[in-house]
Please model this.
Amino acid sequence: MTPDGLKIASLNVCGLQSKLMFPEFTEFIEEYDLICLSETKLDDVDQCDVPGYTFFNKNRDRCKRKSGGIGVFVKGPHT
Model:
């Protein structure tokens, strides 16, 4: 936890879509205000919804298969 009470985590998920199918993973996300993810392995059609969070991501470009990518879940509505 940071001095101002903000809880931040970073995690290599090695494929975010498969992890979101497990309630335990969503519960883990909900413990933090900001969670940074690497190796999300998403493409432009994937949806990553966790209630109460806004998801920002950058997919890996020019790749024949899903790989790489980063994402951030931020608690609350953000645009």
Remarks:
- The first strand starts at residue 8 and ends at 12.
- The chain is about 15% helix and 30% strand.
- The mean pLDDT is 89.
- The two ends are 24 Å apart (CA to CA).
